[in-house]
Design a protein that fits this description.
Length: 691
Amino acid sequence: MINKNNPLLIGEGLPPFQDIKPEHIIPAIQELLTELEVSLSSLEANFQPTWQDLVVPLNHLEDRLKWSWGIIGHLMGVKNSPELRTAYETVQPDLVQFSNKLSQSRALYEGFRKIRDSQQWNDFESAQKRIIESAIKDAQLSGVALEGEKKERFNQIQLQLAELSTKFSNNILDSTKNFKLRLTNPEEIDGLPASLLSLSAQTARSEGEENATPENGPWMITLDYPSYVPFLKFSKREDLREKVYRAFISRAGSGEFDNNPLIIQILTLKQELAEILGYSNYAQVSLAKKMADSVETVEKLLEELRVVSYSAAQKELTELKEFAEIDDLNPWDVSYWAEKQRETKFNFTEEELRPYFSLNQVLEGLFALAKRIFGITITPADGEAPVWHEDVKYFQVTNENQQIIAHFYLDAYSRPSEKRGGAWMDDCLGRAKFEQNGKIITRLPVAYLTCNQTPPIDGKPSLMTFSEVETLFHEFGHGLQHMLTIIDYSGASGINNVEWDAVELPSQFMENWCLEKNTLFGMAKHYETGETLPYHYYEKLLASKNYMSGSMMLRQLHFSFLDLELHSRYNPTNGETPHQVRERISETTTVMKPLPEDQFLCSFGHIFAGGYSAGYYSYKWAEVLSADAFSAFEEVGLEDEKAIAKVGKHFRDTVLALGGSLSPMEIFKQFRGRQPNTQPLLRHSGLLASY
């Protein structure tokens, strides 16, 4: 039964964002959970162990929940407010309890096992088999076999972890927006580029300084990436760089937004949860549904990359100190001197390139690339879907036969007051085929693509840095896997049922195209004159591609090793704090040790408030796959349009189309014809010589 009076209970189609208010959340979720409790009890009592009788109605039930809760979760990320938070936190415990009940249903679990052991199993498609096997594994990891006190404690932990995760995320958002550095005189802005002065004046105006201008200030610096990153790179005032840097590394590290106690609680609870399930540590629980089979397997790959990148990073730091003529470089000086060294080495600044990367031109280039290699056409569809903010764009995707196959939203700009940092792709609607009123309906996929790039300022469009361009391509890659799926079973379409350590393959694959000649010149056009990026800039971009690549790879490995250590070997009762674990790990994974007061872990939302617990290594694991996948295009020649389109079709028909219907390794081998290897990644990173 659908309550049309509450927009969160419509249960199908695009979310009516213009009608949704925080006050709808509590009544909607309460009513929905009451309805779903009845549906679940009825299903448990009446199903036969067949696909049609168990999987189909269960999908419908899960879809209803996902539709309403998905919208609320999305708004928490992009339109956060005190009212929304209060409503979210009020209903979250009920939702966790229902999710536990659903995932721990012994009746459904036994039903799935009976399907797996039945005659019909041999007639199933691989997608169906993977969905059933995944449901059985999920139930086991959700505590389906637990009884009595153990089950009760497990469910308590799940509830506490959900609450702690939300609080952790909110603390990062609040402490990030809590810091503001107000600059008022010309000496304080020495070295800052015009783009940052414009953004800082616009921020000051939004804070009530109505007369703020880029020329005369006042200027407001924040810890939001479009403000923080360029300030560290360009400010000539070392004292101010230090102030901003120290504020950034201490986010959510003390005071009312302190995440330190939450870290200990989260790690302790995850360890207890693992033990209840019969595992030695939480990393084993996490890896139970990933490509990598053990912590040792992951660490072997990471170590292979660490050995190469550590020596490269040491060399890079030595060269940077020599360039800066400073023996003891402070952490807040690194970005500044690295930018100066890069400018000297390659004779250009990142800021010079911004005018050539307006968002609309970049999208034009990105969409032209998607047509060239995947045969799809993307066109604006603004006005066809309700949006949550006036800056949000909506697009339609069609195939070679001009049939609409998907849509996506793009929320590109930073909004520090209400939107969490970072960039992500999320699922608004997933592809599925189902029966409705006697007809077979195909629901087309719709994706949310969210970035936090520099917004339009002072009448100019959003002028992007090259790294913001790469971020957009990255999220679009995730979107492609969601949108180009051909799997009609919702449990395995798009990114559903894709092992977490393979899910970054398409996103990191797309980043490689930013520096491919045709793509770059197709999008890099001056926003005022239309002039294409001069060729010497392309050569400089190419030459600078691997600048500090050893340091950048080592940084990711540092996070990956740290994440694994905390979730596999760390024991809070041994007297070592998580920050001391980081210090220990940093001995072999950093060439510049973190400051004693560095509270990085307090803002490590990926592992404490996201899905990357004992899974941060996935970025590097999948980058091995993505670099190898891109090398298939290099092998046929990036200038050969016909060959590129052929390989692109093969990539689309395997990696992008098959979703979670087969194991990622099988899909990779279908595309590449062999197992992946690390050579292409080391080559792309300019580290093969050191290997």
